[in-house]
Amino acid sequence: MEILATGVQRDERPRLAAAFAGRHDVRSLETPLNADTLPLAAGYEAVCTSAEAVLDAPVLEGLVRGGTRFVTQRSTGFGNIDLDHAERLGLTVARVTGYSPYAVAEFAWTLATALNRRIVRAAGRTRDFDFRLDGLLGRDFRGRTAGVIGTGRIGTAFARIAQGFGMRLLGWDITPNAECAELGMEYVELDRLLREADLVSLHVPLMPSTHHLLGARRLAGMKDGAILVNTSRGALIDSAALDGALREGRLSGVGLDVYEEETGIFFPDRSLEVMTDETLARLMTYPNVLVTSHQAYFTEEAVDEIIATTVRNVDDYLAGRITECTLVPRSP
């Protein structure tokens, strides 16, 4: 079978080809699948998409008209897919249920430490042979408080690193994690966590109940001088409210690997374009804000795990198997 893979990063392409070698032919494209690129999928029974794909009802209908019967997404998130419509159309849909939690947890700490020690500003200065320390004063993490919002696999990995720094641990989740409790984490109400934590890291999924989990009120309730890091989903934070909080000057730093309107913005080279998203443009003007383009997952180990799961998803589709990765099962 020939498979169309869309939204494939350059470093991902050879790994994807090697994983499918001798099994199926893969055509890899850097562009994500959406209404504009839909014609490229015509004739492919199986389409392998990335998280930035826009798989709404019209696109799904177009896929079916073109002969597509199976969509497998190389991500854990699937909010970009109209699953109800896919089921009505008889499309089989699968995803990746998980990958290296250390990739994301370590990257969250990369953002946190870079913000705390003003690394980006320092590197820019020394590149110009400016070796002053003015404005580069950081703080020890040891003895301070880390607030972990969401204590699943990634949140737990983040908490273990925090423990290594010698930090006090506060956690918030629907269900406490025994592994985190063994690390000494105290589970508290979200408002208290925000009030006491020197570092807050988000690791919850995006659902209706977590959309804008940190809005104006909760951002205003954060501890003065706190660092906020989001490597989970952009819409967990109200970006306009975050802009307002930054203007008040109470946050020491903000690290964003995700942004609530990132679809259609992140991944392509837009260096020669005007940034029309005014909120994102403003956020990136703050000297204490560090924005990266959804790269927390992007390690060799995590990408290989994602690809291996994708290969299994194709095999399961062909065999008619339903697994934990199946979002919409194959029609009888």
UniProtKB/TrEMBL annotation:
Coiled coil: none annotated. InterPro entries: D-isomer_2_OHA_DH_cat_dom (IPR006139), D-isomer_DH_CS (IPR029753), D-isomer_DH_CS1 (IPR029752), D-isomer_DH_NAD-bd (IPR006140), D-LDH-like (IPR058205), NAD(P)-bd_dom_sf (IPR036291). Keywords: NAD, Oxidoreductase. It holds the Pfam family 2-Hacid_dh. Residues 8-322 form the D-isomer specific 2-hydroxyacid dehydrogenase catalytic domain. Residues 110-296 form the D-isomer specific 2-hydroxyacid dehydrogenase NAD-binding domain. CDD domains: LDH_like_2. It comes from the Bacteria. PROSITE patterns: D_2_HYDROXYACID_DH_1, D_2_HYDROXYACID_DH_3. Belongs to the D-isomer specific 2-hydroxyacid dehydrogenase family. This is 2-hydroxyacid dehydrogenase.
